[in-house]
Protein 1
Amino acid sequence: MGKVVVQATMSLDGFIAYPSGGVGPLFDWYRNGDVEFHDNERTYRVSAASAEYLRSAWSNVGPGVMGRRLFDLTDGWGGTPAVGDAAFVVTHRVPTEWIDAHPDAPFTFVTDGVESAIAKAQAVAGGRVVSLTAGDMTGQALAAGLVDELRVDLVPVLLGTGVRYFGGFTGAEHLLENPTVVQGDRVTHLHYRVRKEAP
């Protein structure tokens, strides 16, 4: 089964977006460098260190799991997942009009929660990574013991308010292994493995 990895850009005070969903200066590092990095239909210009980090982080990503709010904010990226080759969207209501407009989009809409969406994604992932978007779903998945790794692209800015990396997570304590650290330009990439309890 594919391991579940969360990756998101985060402000120093723990936010991944403003309350509106806008990212302000959080994504500036995706366009402040000299090295072109391509993923799916998108092109980024990042520092050499960030490009190498992203190649490693994204090279084995298969399906992604996201919430309906992010899907709506991006309009499903026009039918092409931001990372990976398929998307499982947790929702209470299936967007039939969007599906009709994007009949070939590799999106599956899951109405019975994040745990079910992760299981469905793992079923098609094989040995590839399942990418989980940060926010409330990450908090829920972490509480359920389903998250294997956390990748935090830490940006030197304080947003003051917004959407938290772990959403409203108030679960039990979780210990992480020591991080690997890569310093980019205006971003520090932190990669943690979640310490699992012994059986």
Protein 2
Amino acid sequence: MKTPFPQVLQLPSARSFSALPVILVVLGIIAWSSWYTVPSDSVAILQRFGKLHAEVPPGLHFKIPLGVDVATILPVKRQLKQEFGFYTEGASNPDQYSDTPRDESPMVTGDLNVGLVEWVVQYRISEPTHYLFAVREPGATLRDVSESVMREVVGDRTVDEVLTIGRQEIEVEALLKMQKLATLYTMGISIDQVQLKNINPPAPVQESFNEVNQAQQEKEKLINEARRDYNKVVPLAEGEKDQRIREAEGYRLKRINEAEGDVSRFNAVFTEYQKAPAITQQRLYLETMQDILPGVENKVVVDEGMKNLLPLLNLNQKQTTPAEAQP
């Protein structure tokens, strides 16, 4: 009878124990990278092996790890902006200002002057797939489009228009042209606003331009004050004129009515007089005395038949003047 060889138990080697944590870490990284979150103001464009797969809404989502699925998050509900001629420190948008050192603000106007123009373009991502795949660098392309359009619009105007009265017209025209080019290039961008910030002349002539600008403002101020005085004085004069006309019209109507009333009363009295002259004369006499006597302070009523009146009054004698009394 053969004696069986004893079975030897093989224990795991130290190398296998050292590789286990690495495997767990790799598996944890793979599991962690399989999930991603899309913010509420954004959407994610999911690419599988580099090909467009789906447009993912906000929320927590799963993807195939190890580079099979790549999710690009785009803030479609957020208003983005680009700054030209200046920049804001700490900006979160990488396309807000240009990384390459270039001065975009100097521009030549239509009358061959130079102005330093600073402006802001505010836009939204309206079509995420076009924004990612139709144009290679949409942010840089939008900067080039904006600068080209602004130079064209400013170049069609004089420096006085650019510095003073033409700002709003420049903003509107630049917005329309930028949106037209963005649509033509299928950039997937909707431009909301173009806003001019500071517009200044070059430093060597800035003092002279400021003096001209101050003179223009003083001119506008004097014109506004003159218009204010005009609007204050002229309506007042017009009102007084209308008041005088209405007063004269009222006085005219009053005099006409009074005259017509007098005529009507005279005709009525004359009609009654023709019917009874004596009674009418007596009534007119009594009415006249009724109007006169209340104004007389001392009244002496004498009867015609009275004979024994005191002679001191000399009522029956003719009054003589001093000239008649002289011989």
